[in-house]
Design a protein that fits this description.
There is one protein chain. With 745 residues, the protein is an all-beta fold. The chain is 0% helix and 44% strand. It has no helices and 58 strands. The radius of gyration is 30 Å and the shape is elongated.
Length: 745
């Protein structure tokens, strides 16, 4: 509930002498919205995220499950403004279309009915600003007309009556409105000429009219205001044109910041400062940002919502920490959110519904970093047998671990214990690590390979089996889309949907024909189809999904890892369809086992070798056909003898061999787990990769974690000590030239 301009009718004529407004002000979109128990935020890339309470679908995720960490809504990346009520939400897109979701029993979604929605639902187009009170909404059209809808028990819709409205209705016949704000049951708005207006509930004098009588229509034109406004539950805050701050309304907890007790029915100045840039009102507390980037808080501190680290209410503004780079702040019910200049989002205060987005329900007395807002440090990664590679957000490629065959691409065969940059290029898009070789695709679609090449797995030229210590381009085409690396073979899909293979073919893993088991040193087409969409390479077998959702397998099958039938352990030299289902969405391989996820249901199936429980079926029996693990999965990965998976709720799970702590349980008390076991309590995992006996995982904020075996430095932690739990892989940054070492962030 951050600054929301409003128009107060005041009886203090001296205020008219403040600086005037010049022309029509530009509407400033609201990028974060802290509600009573849920929160929304828009990242710099235009994506929309929600977290906290969700019993009415107010997070817009299509369900009623609470989220403890920021979770993305859909795939759209053109959101520009958000607003939250008590249990409903609104958001505005760049094209002016307005969406609403959550509880609708009072018509607060503006959809013409009282049916609640759990996903963003279009209200209409042509809007430029929106805000929400507890159970009512206010929005401004592109032509400057002001509309309201929802609960109207105190006249907060400005219609001159107390009749609820289930669709947007115009507030007066005036145009030129530029900003709005909503409290519990009162409304505030500002026009382009700087005049401020207020209406609705007024029991605490929050309308600033000099009385405590509800007002059913916008009242009291007054010129001279043009900065910012905010509506708390029962109080209002205004930043004047000269940067001075004023407040009125309820002051039971000192939320007016006046240093004295007692409600105020007219605006009273808060201190003597003239450098206020932003203000926000919560239920019983207030936040303000000054022009120098400092953050200030006052009012109730019962749940730590002031962020001061010590208990006790404050009746005057008190600085929060020493940071001077706060950019946007918003006060929720009894919680607070704030963006800082580096794009990091912080939360503090009340957290019983997870509204702080910190992965738990523990309240915080000081600003605490969430997983949202920090530009992703890592955007892609892959795990080989004993080495790892990762792509940073700037497109640079980094490698670490075993380098016996030059698989790190660093120009030598020396291993690395921490991340080392591969060349100077910043256009890497995807990466795939095989046993001891690597495939990389750049943004222009060109494919590059390096490392071990004894079987031609680099695909560089006929008869070429020479290892490469730096990236070498495969052919001259720029149409590669995806790729996968097995132990000694490689697979690649081109933009036209065709599938290609090269390298070792002793078990038919290239899929080139029944009698053809010879290796290839250049890419060779697999069949004649143009509809491949995903591939995966195991130690000696291959898997793929076609556009119609069918699943195909070929190569080594001694353990039934092709999934072609009970007791079927015969190798296949051409792709064979696995079952007759057409709903496969994701595929992964371990050394001798396979994993696949069905679309929509998220059903995870596994098959093949199961000596260590890597199939996750709660037994150790191998499977020659896909066996159901369970529903609700969105990502999966297979290592040598262990498996990793992420569920739809963002939690991470692991099963199989744990000899080196690769399951991330914090110990090796159980050397194997035969069913999925949760890794920690975090619920913001987005991607995983399983190496030989180690694991890598990416969280929503772009931070990379590693755990398991580390004999060659494959965890990238600067040593060779195994880790039994996910450990942050810190990003190196260079020191000044006089220092040749690295400093860790």
């Amino acid at each position: 509930m951050r600054w929301r301009p409003f128009c107060l009718c005041l009886g203090i004529l001296a205020l008219v002498l403040l600086l005037p407004v010049h022309g029509e002000a530009k509407v400033k979109p609201q990028k974060i919205a802290a509600g009573e128990f849920h929160s929304l935020a828009i990242r710099a890339d235009g994506t929309l995220w929600g977290w906290g309470r969700n019993d009415y679908g107010q997070l817009g995720l299509g369900d009623t499950t609470y989220r403890l960490v920021p979770t993305r809504l859909g795939t759209a990346s053109d959101w520009v403004a958000v607003a939250v009520g008590e249990v409903h939400s609104l958001a505005l897109k760049a094209d002016g279309s307005l969406y609403a979701w959550g509880y609708n029993g009072l018509g607060q979604l503006g959809l013409g009915d009282t049916t609640s929605k759990s996903t963003p639902t279009l209200v209409s187009a042509g809007w430029k600003a929106v805000t929400a009170g507890y159970n009512h909404c206010l929005a401004i059209k592109a032509d400057g007309a002001l509309y309201a809808w929802g609960l109207n028990d105190h006249g907060q819709l400005g219609q001159g009556n107390k009749v609820n409205q289930v669709s947007p209705v115009k507030v007066t016949n005036d145009y030129g409105w530029i900003e709005v704000a909503g409290g519990w049951a009162h409304s505030l708005a500002i026009r382009g000429d700087g005049s401020l207006w207020s209406w609705g509930y007024n029991a605490s004098g929050q309308l600033g009219l000099g009385n405590t009588i509800d007002c059913l229509l916008p009242a009291c034109l007054l010129n001279g205001f043009n900065r910012a406004i905010a509506a708390g539950r029962y109080h209002s805050l205004v930043i004047m044109a000269n940067g001075s701050l004023y407040a009125c309304g309820n002051n039971d907890n000192g939320q007016l910041g006046l240093g004295v007790a007692g409600n105020k029915s007219t605006l009273v100045r808060v201190g003597a400062g003239v450098d206020w840039a932003e203000v926000s009102g919560g239920s019983w507390h207030s936040l303000g940002r000054q022009a120098d980037g400092t953050l200030w808080a006052w009012g109730s501190n019962f749940s730590g919502q002031l962020g001061l680290g010590v208990p006790g209410n404050q009746s005057s503004p008190v600085q929060v920490g020493t940071a001077t780079d706060w950019q946007v702040v918003d006060a929720g019910g009894d919680s607070s959110l704030g963006w800082r200049a580096d794009g990091a989002l912080y939360g503090w205060g009340y957290n019983t519904s997870g509204q702080l987005g910190l992965g738990d329900k523990i309240s915080r007395p000081t600003p605490t970093l969430t997983s949202l807002g920090i530009p992703p440090a890592w955007v892609g990664f892959s795990a080989g047998e004993e080495n790892s590679l990762g792509i940073r957000a700037d497109g640079s490629l980094w490698a670490w671990g075993n380098n016996q065959y030059g698989q790190l691409g660093l120009g030598d065969t020396s291993g690395r214990l921490s991340q080392t940059r591969v060349g100077a290029d910043t256009h890497w898009a995807t990466i795939a690590a095989g046993g001891q070789h690597t495939l990389g695709r750049r943004a222009d679609g060109a494919l590059w390979t390096w490392g071990h090449n004894a079987d031609g797995q680099l695909g560089l030229a006929e008869g070429d089996i020479t290892d490469r210590y730096t990236p070498a381009q495969v052919g001259f085409l720029h149409n590669w889309l995806t790729m996968a690396a097995g132990q000694f073979h490689s697979l690649g899909q081109r933009a036209n949907g065709s599938l290609w293979a090269w390298g070792n073919n002793w078990n038919g893993q290239l899929g080139l024909g029944v009698t053809d088991i010879s290796s290839r040193q250049v890419p060779v087409r697999v069949g004649s189809d143009y509809d491949w969409k995903a591939v995966a390479g195991g130690k000696y077998h291959s898997l793929g999904i076609r556009a119609n959702g069918s699943f195909w397998a070929w190569g080594f099958n001694a353990y039934g890892q092709l999934g072609l039938g009970t007791l079927d352990t015969t190798d296949r030299h051409v792709p064979q369809q696995v079952g007759d289902d057409y709903y496969w969405a994701a595929v992964a391989t371990g050394d001798y086992h396979s994993l696949g996820i069905m679309a929509s249901s998220g059903y995870l199936y596994t098959w093949g070798a199961n000596t260590f429980g890597q199939l996750g079926l709660n037994h150790l029996n191998g499977q020659q056909t896909p066996a159901l693990v369970g529903p609700g999965w969105k990502a999966v990965a297979g290592g040598r003898f262990h498996s990793l998976g992420i569920k739809a709720d963002g939690t991470l799970w692991a099963w199989g061999d744990n000899s080196y702590g690769q399951l991330g349980q914090g110990n090796r008390d159980n050397l194997k787990e035969i069913k999925p076991t949760q890794v920690g309590s975090a619920a913001d995992w987005v991607e995983v990769a399983a190496g030989g006996d180690f694991s890598l995982g990416l969280r929503a904020n772009g931070s990379l974690y590693a755990w398991g075996r580390n004999n060659a430095g494959q965890l990238g932690l600067g040593d060779t000590i195994d880790r039994y739990a996910p450990t942050l892989v810190r990003i190196p940054r260079p020191l000044p030239a006089i220092f040749p070492l690295l400093l860790w962030d």
